[in-house]
Amino acid sequence: MAKVAVIGATGRVGSTTAARLAMLDCVGEVALIARKRSVERLKGLRRDILDSLAAAQKDAEITIGHRFEDYADADLIVMAAGVPRKPGQTRLDLTKDNAGIVRKYLEGIGEENPDAIILMVTNPVDVLTYVALRVSGLDRHRVLGLGTHLDSMRFKVIIAEHFNVHMSEVHTRIIGEHGDTMVPVISSTSIGGIPITRMPGWEDFDVDKAVEEVKTAGQRIIETWGGSQFGPAQAIANLVRTILQDERRVLTVSAYLDGEIAGVRDVCIGVPARLGREGILEIVPIKLDEREIEAFKRSVKVVKRATREAMKVIEE
User: Fold this and answer.
1) What CATH number should be reported for the domain whose range is 2-145?
2) Is 171 a catalytic residue?
């Protein structure tokens, strides 16, 4: 069974993720990682997770640490440390602060452990997936981000509710930036194998309104609950399980592109990818319609611009 490290384990997303990961059959150890001054809090979290494991009759080793050597040997590293988004902030507002944090924790991982896989969660996730790729020294297929995986799930819920069907019948995805320029791939969306545009009720489905609801979901949760944790944690657990169990599922994650989709290169952004034990096994070269291509390329420009700013920070 694998060792998974959660960097930023004292945060909302990090702590909830750690608890979910400890329950996975493919995970034998969860390393809770935070700043040195937060080690006492990690001790409490460790005890709480162990209690939950006992209740679930699941066995896993839960370790704590703050040093590079405490997580550098992990099979998979979940990077959730960073400055959280506040009400009114966009994900891109966090770029400068969080780029430095990513560098602090992940620089040199590839040299120490070339077989490691990094799953980026810290926002802006597309930008920081690129930063992690560059500073870690790992191969491109071993660094990915949560990207629009959760956005795709949120879109799936809205579609299922509108068409009054079980969520498992909806197959859809959102690509592009995990942010304001995300792109719904309506041309590939189906319900029970039927293209959504041929379903009764399609004429009444407001795509723009639905996507806007997905875009603002995180902000609404911040304003009313204080921050998102259960949705991201389960989405992360989905990705970790898919990778460690070599399930070879096609999920939408932030990945480095080299021309596979719409000729786009040198950016990390949300795209469909086949995932397995080696990380990203393949970027799925989906065909988009003209409107989707245009929207995707606009999204790429936004992410590339923010990525350039982030790279300036870590190169200073």
Assistant:
1) 3.40.50.720
2) no
